Amino acid sequence: MKNKKNQLYIIWSVVILFFLMVILSINVIPDIQEERKDKRYVYLGKDAPIPSQLNPIVEERKNILINKAANQKIDVVITEGIRTFEKQKQLYQQGRTTTGNIVTHKKAGESFHNYGLAFDYALLDSNGTIIWDIDYDGNKNGESDWFEVADMAKKLGFDWGGDWEDFKDYPHLQMTFGLNIAMLKEGYRVNDQVVRKELKKYIGFYELSPKHMLNEINRHIY
Ligand SMILES: [Zn+2]
């Protein structure tokens, strides 16, 4: 009789403990995620410096993308990286106040290129001639090379302009770390400390085979 009572006591304790843990995890986990997200950027004020080169994680993953594509016999060329405000202004004027076709809908400071968070790619054929044809299948595997590269990039954490509904920007890849243009204009910037810590995490992976390294990086995507 006493034994049975003890058993019941233990079972109820386990059940209550289980529910307590569930309730706690529901309340605590989103908080932790929210906190981590916030740490990816910082507010540096109205005079926040404009980055002069690609963000180090963007740069690193750009290089991984080029290597990954090369393994699939696709030759990727980077046609544009960081873009100064001045260059953006000129591009915006093209087709509006200067000659040529309209090439962008973004004014100076409105493109992720202006903050080192985007780059553009194209392909090269075996003669080194630049290819803008998104249907080109140079590695003859029955798939468009351009889309193959886009898929690889997305696995590395990039957003691809070819997925946009309003204006398809097939060469464009960006990584925003939770920032949007309004925030960047206001003076929010990528939190370099967090980025550096993320980079350090990857350093050991370079000793692994490229395949293992990519698996590891894919697990830590922003
Ligand atoms: Zn672009």
Q: Describe it for me?
A:
The chain is an alpha+beta fold. It has two domains: 2-38; 56-219, Muramoyl-pentapeptide Carboxypeptidase, domain 2, CATH 3.30.1380.10. It is 45% helix and 12% strand. The strands form two sheets. Strands 2, 3, 4, 5 and 6 form a five-stranded antiparallel sheet that branches. A two-stranded antiparallel ribbon has the order 1-7. A hairpin with a 5-residue loop joins strand 3 and strand 4 (130-131). The model is unreliable at 203-209 (pLDDT under 50). Zinc ion binds next to strand 3. Zinc ion is lined by residues 113, 118, 120, 169, 172.
The rough form would be described as extended
Class of secondary structure makeup: alpha+beta
Radius of gyration of CA atoms, rounded to a whole number: 24 Å
Task: Detail the poorly predicted runs.
Answer: 203-209
What average pLDDT do the residues reach?
A: 86
What is the beta-strand fraction? 5-15%
Q: Supply the CATH class of the largest domain.
A: Alpha Beta
Q: How widely separated are the two ends?
A: 57 Å
Ions, cofactors and other bound molecules: zinc ion
Element-by-element helix/strand order = HEHEHEEHEEHEHH
Helix content: 40-55%
**Main β sheet profile:** 5 strands, antiparallel
Q: Quickly count the domains.
A: 2
CATH topology term of the largest domain? Muramoyl-pentapeptide Carboxypeptidase, domain 2
Number of helices: 7
CATH architecture assignment of the largest domain: 2-Layer Sandwich
What is this entry, summarized?
This protein is of the alpha+beta class and 222 residues long. The chain has helices spanning 2-38, 56-71, 85-93, 145-155, 181-186, 192-203, 210-219; strands at 41-43, 75-80, 118-124, 130-131, 159-160, 172-174, 188-190. Strands 2, 3, 4, 5 and 6 form a five-stranded antiparallel beta sheet that branches.
